């Protein structure tokens, strides 16, 4: 043994650390700012050093490279500046400038929007700009997705297989004659019909027509573009495949919208406008007036309408004129209203009610984007109501029967168009006017279609106030057409987010549910229940909710009907749990768990249980909400069991973490107050249920340790026989549960924590068992583990863990049957066998250094900290010479191992690691060893020489700091012989620097 370590007695403040200390003048996480100050015209920027880590580019540094003209005129000469100023003005002469100034004054006098930074207030010019209606673009996708077909479609066109020959025309008369010939040729039957197209092929052909239209327009083939628009419009007269008609309408009107936009933009850009005070002609601005349009542009615009008026068939003439309706803005200010009313009357000539209502829909859609006038919308609605009865006449019934379409399916085709018209009617409409419309709709025979469209289009507040009378109306509506279930389902969804007045709520629910419960179709019943679940759970108490769930059980249990409606049942449970104000009361209801048992499919039941716990977590986010009702606890435990049993080897990490988080939140919320025995009984039951989740088991162990600590706090550290037995039971629970956890790292940490809690409660035998089990797990720690999503070496974890363990071991008394410092000896036997990174390992050396710190404390007469009622080794041995000799022997052994590490580092040419280890060991020796022993004094001096020899690889200030620390020890040491040795060592150290 080369070292002869004898621990020195010292005061606790003698070892104050002076190593690696430095003053911090700024927060290390504070971001440095860079302030750049630039002057106009700067060509070369010279950085100037600023305070607080900033860099300034100042004008002073850049002025030297600039001439006065550059500074004054931004790097350009005076003539260029004058020219630039001239270009910014609107005119070239003083009169032009005066006109511009007058216009600026006019603009300045316009009222501004509050908070709009002086911008003129923009009044809405059409209904769509008022943002009171859902835009058509939001409805377009829903219509295309809903109205589909598997039948074969046909398309009539002459533009998909090739182009047409363009004849050169020299005079205006020849050009007009040729265009009329083209239109005549189109009307005489030059078109071709494509049959047996699937829906996807039909959509592709429509997109090709769209492309052909744009391409023809870009190639100045205006007549061809018009012919494509006419042919597309004619397609809307074909109702051979009725279920696809709404989608066809969307696709065709998209093309017509593009055509109308092309015509409008062409006219606007071609109409040259001379700004007052100037002689330059420019295109019309966005917000122009008819007075600004030159006569030539007005004539061109009128020609477009004349061409369209020459179309023989009504439907294409209507649609194409509606498409370019915006072009009336070139002709007169009040032309929109007259044209819209005229077109409204023209639509009356369409015999098919389905084709007519979609033509009215397109007219209203275009008109809403042009004017604030709403008269034509109401006229269109009046016309729809006038011919409403024709939807149910014999001719229509026979036609849809021939196409094998049900009456319900046929009526549903009207909804998109009728919804849009009704939404347009509701804009800026009083409740009295809406009541009048509703009354007219109720008076119609088979009003289900009108009622459903009203529910979808009218304001939710309007519907909610009249919910009671609407329920009576819907309950008595004829079953022909749309069913009562569809109407009640829609009403339930509205009341879910806009409830009726408080005095009507009970009546509305009672009357509605009376009708819903008597429905013969289970499918309609459960769909209505799905929509009314939110309304019921939000605005009614537990009794009504329990009755609601009970009625669902009565309808779903017979003939296992629930198997066909898992989705609706899942939505119902989610709405009840997420909207209920008393989440605990919901779970304690008699019908809650039976409703949950309807989910026999494992995947569905797993999702439902997960959603329930998620809703519970959201509802109980506050720390004050706890669970102490056994019924609620059992319900949540049943749900947790389902989630736990679903976890297997194939479960993903994210899924496992999500489930664990939900269950752990539930476990932490269970609190039976001072009834600690019932609390522990719950944890015992939970352990048997949650055996597949490490996180849940870890939470249970933490909870039991907290329970033991709370018991100690209540008895103020003085355990009675009853409380002593209880905390021992808690320690036994933890010791038994920890081995069930798979992760070794988690087990080690829990063993250490549980041992600390057992020690706090004076359960010495249980604490020893936990500490011993933790040490035996060291060799099972994998060499690499995932930390924060990255694979890292386990060395850092083990070092931190051992340091924490040694800090606890200071106050752990020795077991009389195991010998002196048994746990430390076990640690020294286990740690060297672990395969640390590197050879030799710096982590192992660091652990040995911390062991020396522990042994230095263990040799003191009084330890720095204690636990009440726990007799630590300082009191147990009373500085017995035999105990001190054992400690010194261990110090010598550890020191020898460190010296072996030093030699191994030298052989490996690891000079920096060797110098650092030598310096660290030197500090341990001068702090804790008796330097009067010649071997230790010589060893300390040799270690210092080794460090000085390799000073170039260390921080330059480190040696000086160690020297200052040695001087501090020499000053505070009370033992004279130790003081003299430190003085002598200091002289030798200084001589080597």
Question: How would you portray this structure in words?
Answer:
With 993 residues, the chain is mainly α. The chain is built from 45 helices and 8 strands. The strands form 4 sheets. The chain has a two-stranded antiparallel sheet with strand order 1-2. Strands 3-4 form a two-stranded antiparallel ribbon. It starts with 46 loop residues before the first strand and ends with a helix.
Q: Would you summarize the structure shown here?
A:
The chain has 993 residues and is mainly alpha-helical.
Radius of gyration based on Cα positions:
45 Å
**SS field, number of helical segments:** 45
Strands, total number: 8
**Which percent bin holds the helix content?**
55-70%
> Which outline best applies?
elongated
Beta-strand percentage range: under 5%
Structural class: mainly alpha
Oligomeric status: single chain
Strand order of the largest sheet: 1-2
Ends distance = 30 Å
Average pLDDT number:
83
Question: Which stretches of 5+ consecutive residues score pLDDT under 50?
Answer: 16-76, 86-92, 95-119, 161-170, 186-190
Quick one: biggest sheet? 2 strands, antiparallel
Give the helices and strands, then pairings:
Elements: E1 47-49, E2 55-57, H1 59-63, H2 68-72, H3 78-88, H4 94-108, H5 136-146, E3 153-157, H6 172-187, E4 192-197, H7 199-218, H8 222-235, H9 245-270, E5 272-274, E6 281-283, H10 295-309, H11 314-323, H12 335-346, H13 353-368, H14 375-386, H15 394-402, H16 407-412, H17 415-426, H18 431-443, H19 448-457, H20 460-465, H21 467-475, H22 484-497, H23 502-517, H24 522-539, H25 542-556, H26 566-579, H27 583-587, H28 592-596, H29 602-619, H30 630-646, H31 653-669, H32 676-689, H33 694-715, H34 721-737, H35 744-760, H36 764-776, E7 784-787, E8 790-793, H37 795-809, H38 822-830, H39 842-858, H40 873-877, H41 881-907, H42 911-928, H43 934-949, H44 956-972, H45 976-992
Antiparallel strand pairs: 1-2, 3-4, 5-6, 7-8
């Amino acid at each position: 043994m080369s070292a002869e370590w004898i621990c020195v007695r010292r005061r606790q403040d003698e070892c104050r650390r002076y190593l690696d200390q430095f003053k911090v003048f700024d927060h290390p996480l504070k971001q440095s700012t860079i302030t750049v100050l630039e002057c106009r015209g700067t060509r070369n920027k010279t950085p100037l050093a600023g305070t607080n880590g900033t860099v300034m580019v100042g004008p002073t540094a850049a002025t030297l490279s600039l001439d006065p003209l550059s500074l004054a005129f931004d790097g350009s000469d005076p003539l260029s500046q004058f020219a630039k100023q001239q270009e910014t003005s609107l005119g070239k002469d003083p009169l032009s400038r005066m006109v511009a100034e007058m216009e600026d004054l006019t603009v300045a006098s316009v009222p501004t929007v509050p908070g709009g930074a002086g911008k003129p207030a923009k009044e809405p010019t059409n209904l769509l700009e008022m943002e009171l209606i859902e835009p058509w673009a939001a409805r377009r996708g829903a219509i295309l997705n809903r109205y589909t077909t598997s039948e074969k479609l046909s398309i009539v066109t002459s533009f998909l297989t090739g182009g047409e020959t363009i004849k050169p025309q020299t005079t205006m008369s020849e050009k007009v004659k040729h265009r009329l010939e083209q239109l005549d040729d189109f009307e005489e039957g030059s078109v071709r019909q494509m049959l047996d197209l699937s829906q996807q092929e039909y959509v592709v052909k429509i997109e090709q027509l769209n492309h052909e239209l744009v391409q023809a327009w870009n190639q100045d083939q205006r007549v061809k573009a018009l012919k494509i628009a006419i042919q597309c419009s004619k397609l809307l007269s074909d109702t051979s495949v009725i279920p696809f008609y709404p989608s066809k309408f969307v696709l065709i009107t998209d093309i017509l919208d593009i055509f109308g936009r092309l015509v409008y933009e062409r006219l606007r850009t071609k109409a040259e406008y001379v700004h007052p005070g100037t002689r330059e002609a420019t295109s019309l601005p966005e917000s122009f007036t008819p007075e600004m349009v030159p006569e030539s542009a007005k004539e061109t615009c009128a020609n477009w309408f004349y061409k369209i008026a020459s179309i023989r068939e009504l439907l294409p003439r209507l649609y194409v004129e509606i498409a370019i309706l915006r072009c009336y803005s070139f002709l007169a200010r009040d032309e929109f209203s007259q044209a819209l009313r005229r077109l409204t009357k023209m639509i009356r000539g369409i015999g098919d009610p389905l084709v007519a209502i979609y033509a009215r829909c397109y007219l209203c859609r275009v008109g809403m984007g042009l004017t604030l006038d709403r008269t034509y919308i109401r006229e269109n609605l009046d016309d729809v109501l006038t011919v409403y009865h024709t939807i149910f006449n014999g001719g229509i019934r026979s036609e849809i029967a021939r196409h094998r379409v049900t009456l319900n399916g046929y009526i549903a085709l009207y909804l998109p168009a009728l919804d849009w018209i009704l939404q347009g009617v509701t804009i800026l409409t009083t409740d009295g006017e809406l009541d009048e419309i509703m009354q007219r709709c109720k008076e119609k025979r088979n009003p289900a279609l009108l009622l459903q469209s009203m529910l979808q289009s009218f304001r939710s507040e309007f519907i909610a106030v009249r919910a009671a009378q609407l329920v009576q109306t819907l309950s008595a509506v004829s079953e022909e057409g749309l069913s009562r279930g569809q109407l009640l389902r829609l009403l339930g969804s509205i009341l879910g987010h806009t409830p009726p007045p408080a005095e009507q709520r009970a009546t509305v629910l009672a009357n509605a549910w009376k009708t819903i419960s008597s429905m013969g179709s289970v499918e309609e019943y459960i769909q209505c229940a799905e929509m009314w679940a939110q309304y019921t759970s939000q605005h009614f108490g537990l009794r009504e909710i329990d009755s609601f769930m009970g009625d669902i059980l009565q309808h779903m249990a017979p003939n296992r009907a629930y198997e066909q409606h898992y989705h609706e049942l899942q939505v119902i449970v989610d709405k009840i749990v997420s909207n209920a104000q008393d989440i605990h009361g919901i779970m304690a209801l008699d019908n809650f768990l039976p409703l949950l048992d309807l989910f026999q499919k494992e995947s569905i039941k797993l999702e439902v249980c997960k959603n329930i716990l998620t809703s519970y977590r959201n509802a109980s986010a506050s720390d004050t909400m706890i669970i102490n009702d056994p019924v609620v606890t059992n319900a949540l435990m049943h749900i947790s069991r389902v989630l736990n049993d679903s976890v297997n080897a194939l479960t993903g990490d994210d899924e496992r973490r999500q489930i664990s988080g939900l269950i752990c939140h539930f476990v932490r919320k269970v609190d039976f107050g001072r009834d600690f025995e019932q609390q522990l009984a719950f944890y015992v039951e939970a352990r048997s249920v949650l055996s597949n989740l490490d996180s849940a088991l870890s939470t249970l162990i933490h909870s039991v340790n907290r329970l033991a600590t709370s018991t100690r706090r209540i008895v103020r550290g003085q355990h009675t026989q009853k409380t002593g037995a209880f905390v021992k039971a808690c320690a036994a629970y933890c010791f038994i549960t920890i081995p069930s956890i798979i992760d070794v790292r988690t087990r080690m940490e829990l063993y250490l924590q549980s041992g600390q809690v057992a020690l706090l409660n004076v359960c010495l035998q249980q604490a020893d068992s936990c500490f011993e089990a933790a040490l035996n797990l060291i060799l099972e720690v994998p060499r690499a583990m995932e930390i924060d999503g990255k694979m890292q070496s386990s060395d850092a974890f083990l070092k931190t863990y051992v340091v924490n363990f040694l800090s606890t071991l200071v106050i752990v008394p020795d077991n009389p049957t195991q010998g002196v410092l048994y746990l430390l000896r076990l640690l020294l036997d286990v740690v060297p066998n672990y395969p640390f990174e590197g050879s030799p390992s710096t982590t192992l050396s660091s652990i040995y250094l911390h062991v020396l710190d522990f042994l230095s404390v263990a040799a003191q007469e009084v330890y720095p900290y204690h636990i009440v009622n726990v007799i630590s080794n300082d009191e147990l041995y009373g500085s017995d010479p035999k105990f001190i000799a054992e400690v010194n022997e261990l110090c010598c052994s550890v020191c020898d191992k460190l010296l072996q590490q030093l030699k191994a580092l030298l052989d490996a040419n690891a000079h920096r690691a060797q110098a650092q280890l030598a310096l660290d060991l030197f500090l341990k020796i001068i702090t804790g060893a008796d330097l009067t022993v010649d071997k230790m004094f010589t060893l300390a001096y040799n270690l210092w020489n080794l460090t000085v020899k390799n000073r170039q690889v260390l921080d330059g200030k480190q040696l000086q700091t160690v020297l200052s620390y040695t001087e501090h020890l020499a000053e505070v040491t009370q033992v004279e012989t130790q003081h003299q040795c430190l003085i002598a060592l200091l002289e030798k150290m200084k001589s080597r620097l």
